[in-house]
Amino acid sequence: MADVVLVTGVSRYLGGQFVRALTQDPTIKRVIGVDVIPPPGDIGRAEFVRADIRNPMIGKIIAQSEVDTVVHMNVIATPTHAGGRTSQKEINVIGTMQLLAACQKATSIRRLVVKSSAAIYGSSPRDPAMFTEDMGPKSLPRAGFGKDSVEVEGYVRGFSRRRPDVEISMLRFANIIGRGIRTSLTDYFALPVVPVPLGYDARLQFVHESDAIGSLLLATTGPSTGITNIAGDGVITVAQAAGMAGRPLIPVPMPAAGIFGNLVKRSGLADFSSDQIQFLAYGRGLDTRRMREVLGFEPAYTTRTAFEDYAQGVGSAIPGAGIFGSAVTGAAGSAASAISHVWAAGRND
Amino acid sequence: MPSTSGVSTSRASTSGASRSGASRAGAKPAGAARSAAKTAKTAKPAKPVKPVKKGALAAGAARASGERAKRRSTPLIASAAAAAPVAPVVQAVPAAVAAAPDASTTPSSGKHRPQPVAKVVPTRKAVARSGSRTTKPAKPARPAREGTAVATASTRHTEAEPKVRTLKAVTDETVVPLDVADPTTSRSIAPGVEELLTAGIAAVRVASEAAGISSDDVERHIASLLSFVRRRVTGDYTVDEFGFDEDFTRHFYLPVLRPLYKSWFRVEVRGIENIPAEGGGLVVANHSGTVAMDSLMTQVAVHDEHPAHRHLRMLGADLVFQTPVIGQVARKSGSTLAANPDAERLLSSGELAGVWPEGFKGVGKPFSERYKLQRFGRGGFVSAALKTGAPIIPCSIVGAEEIYPIIGNMKTVARLLGAPYAPITPTWPLLGPLGLIPLPSKWIIEFGSPVETADLGPNAADDPMLVFDLTDQVRETIQQTLYSLLMQRRSVFF
């Protein structure tokens, strides 16, 4: 099916990993990776073309190489990686516009795969427990990455209207986590002390980076198309996740969260925007029935095991925090055992 | 690969990268060897080690160092360089021979040419922007540092682990499994801690016996509390997709409500057999009492009185989930948003859902309108039951109206706070915090016989007339049951 695949954003972690996995497929003749900087890692037999998707030049590459499948992975979730919010928005929105304009002109295109995000569903107290693909956000994301994602999806919808012959696969990923990837959420749980909105304990869903790549591969080469949510099974809460990562929590009242978030952002430890704080207060869940039944993808990691895998990689932030934690749980354990010991002795009399 | 103008093409491959890396690495020893050879060469005419002609030597060295600086940046054959050891001056002759052809290959007037492959090696900035975590994953396991006080803590933890595991099974209903006779495990507890604990436990035993409570019970409760705390700290519990945390509900939430249920309101439950032992079901009840205490008590009633100890999954207004703390506790205790997608999801997964269709109209109505049912929303609960074929169980709650009788409503305050109502009761806000204590009315909760919806089929939900009829039928049943319960009630408080 896919002969010549063009992948955007190959110099980013997930893009590089995806391209390497894609080149393992012998049925694909050529894989062309596009980005503005050379890929830091090995991208297998893929050809790297240095080009900016915000530039009409991308159209020439598509036309000359007779690309039939375009995988758009250059939608950046974390502003610190893009060099600030302005640049992030530029890459996400203008980049997608230009890429889709180029795709619309190219007659060789047969399939478009877009890496989208669950951020388009937003986060609010009026949300249903689980979002299915046909549900819209209860409150439209007004800032940050969520808004970019909504706009990107809008352009993709426009493209699908104008080019009905092109199959479109859009994957809405829950937060991607793993040992290698770096996102604002991995930075957040790597903080020595995790600030949480006071009185809220959001539900989080994660997808492991290997599952993210696996599902993208299936969307690129498999038979199914359409919009699909991708997430690991089950949910964990913010407090539970912090407990698993061995991080103590500091509750921060919601009105002060903005100021606090800015402070953390300035210090460069993690990235906190207003939509991020909303997410940490209300959380989000994705219904993954379509992922199983239509896309036919079975994730290897549940939300919990994906987070455990990440948590093993980060280690403890404060030297001695782990020991203190284990001493506390050890003391609780020995207290409980001592009680049952004495209790047993009491029962024997 | 047809390369167009303005598009630079380069083949990114491992071999290229590794080659350039190797040549770079090789450059240094080769340079060193060469410099050694050079000094050996220049030193050769004066075989006795001391240099005689100082001026000529210095000039040679200066010339050589300029050239050396140029050469150092050019790549050399790595293998030759690697083979040549950093030669001391005495063995300089073979090294010089090895280095001689090498030196001849490098153009003497050669300009510094940057290796094109070197571009593939990413800059620090590129790596930082790529979104991959390059920081070394910290030590895989906490290293137990021997010889320090720290070691005792960590080993104690690891040895205490199996016993902690056995305690996972501790619940209020079951008995703690006892396999603590193993002497090694009991010794693993740090001596000071164990003695302290034993003394503490003995004190608790004595105290409980003095108070006339079974000491076994007390200890069992402490043990289960401790294991609960441990699970909370380490995140060792599961939360379902709605945020329901069974561990929290069973071991914290219900025990906190139980005294209120048993001793304060003395709830009497009738018709619990109308709730199915398994499968979906929708409990529909009247709402009252200023503070939605009736829903909490119904939840305790269903869990404690029903033989299957089912959890009632309540459907709450969005205001509940918007409020800090309350929203969190509501989610953890099994509530979710009162919307059709959530209701249908709960019912189709075989859960028992509870709904109070009057909403804030019911909770915030004045005392004069007590036990008069308000409008039942838009009948959304009926369509959810129809779509999933779940039976509707009408539930009438008597007694909740009297806990905080509303005699006035501060509309301006309510508008300022964004609350649906700001009640005035005989004790609130007159007595301050004391006004928050509910009046101890006697409650009766009666579950009526279920209205089956499965035989109507899922398409019946699209028939608005049928939905209205069913809504009215359920409402009427609850209203009639309320009247008959009120007739039977001896007084409000007994």
From TrEMBL, chain A:
Q: What CDD domains does its record include?
A: UDP_G4E_3_SDR_e (cd05240)
Q: Which InterPro entries match?
A: Epimerase_deHydtase (IPR001509), Lipid_A_modif_metabolic_enz (IPR050177), NAD(P)-bd_dom_sf (IPR036291)
Q: Which domain of life is it from?
A: Bacteria
Residue ranges of every copy of the NAD-dependent epimerase/dehydratase domain listed in the record: 5-183
Q: Name one Pfam family in it.
A: Epimerase
Q: Can you say what this protein is called? A: SDR family oxidoreductase
UniProtKB/TrEMBL annotation, chain B:
One term under GO cellular component: membrane
For whether the record's keyword set contains Electron transport, the answer is no
* Name of the protein this chain belongs to: Acyltransferase family protein
The record's section on SMART domains has: PlsC
What span is annotated as the signal peptide, if there is one?
none
| InterPro entries for the chain | Plipid/glycerol_acylTrfase
Location of the Phospholipid/glycerol acyltransferase domain: 281-400
